[in-house]
Amino acid sequence: MAVSSARVGLLLALAVFFWQSIPSAAKVFTVGDSIGWTVLNSPNYTAWTFSKTFRVGDSIVFEYNKQFHNVLEVKKADYTACNNDSALATYTTGNDSIILKTAGHHYYICGVPGHCLAGQKVDILVDKGKAVALAPSPSAPSSSAAPSISPPFSSSNPPTSSSLAHAPSVGARLMLSVTLVVGVVTTCFAVLLVGF
Ligand SMILES: *[C@@H]1O[C@H](CO)[C@@H](O)[C@H](O)[C@H]1NC(C)=O
Ligand SMILES: *[C@@H]1O[C@H](CO)[C@@H](O)[C@H](O)[C@H]1NC(C)=O
Ligand SMILES: *[C@@H]1O[C@H](CO)[C@@H](O)[C@H](O)[C@H]1NC(C)=O
Ligand SMILES: [Cu+2]
Known about the structure:
By secondary structure, the protein is α+β, with helices and mostly antiparallel strands.
């Protein structure tokens, strides 16, 4: 009996393994949520990033009044020093959607004098090697109810276009897992009957 239990456990582990290799859907994060990108009431964007997991393929959206703010992607030193004169990228539309294409830190500040020093800065740490499928489009944010399961393999390589293929819907994932579980149970019975 102990041997059978071990076998069942192994098969269940395999099912979980396959389930995890199905990429989860990309998420869209609005920086600051409903508060947006601002200096009013000194939002703490470090606190905002806590409890969030950013993955390659996810997007962040900066929403702000473009008369008063902008978004600069900067290097770490410029993030720390609030230096606005060597931006890696500049965004000024007031509704900037940025796809997180690489793992590691992505530093953003507002370039308007004083704003970064007042806390309008955010360090987005993107998980290593945990790519998700691309969001359908920034205008159609993926459901936050989507399970956030990461693939089991770790890789420091940026995802290729194939790994950014559309993710199966939650329904498809459910169907797949049901199929897997049915397969596992059937296999277990077969194993028990043959008694091998
Ligand atoms: C922002 O929040 C983080 C995490 O809660 C905290 O460590 C940090 O001191 C806060 N910063 C400010 C300026 O309050
Ligand atoms: C950077 O700061 C200077 C003042 O120090 C300001 O005139 C300029 O507009 C800022 N640049 C950006 C891109 O916000
Ligand atoms: C930003 O753009 C998206 C579509 O790209 C739209 O759904 C959203 O309402 C816009 N937000 C603001 C504050 O304009
Ligand atoms: Cu600003």
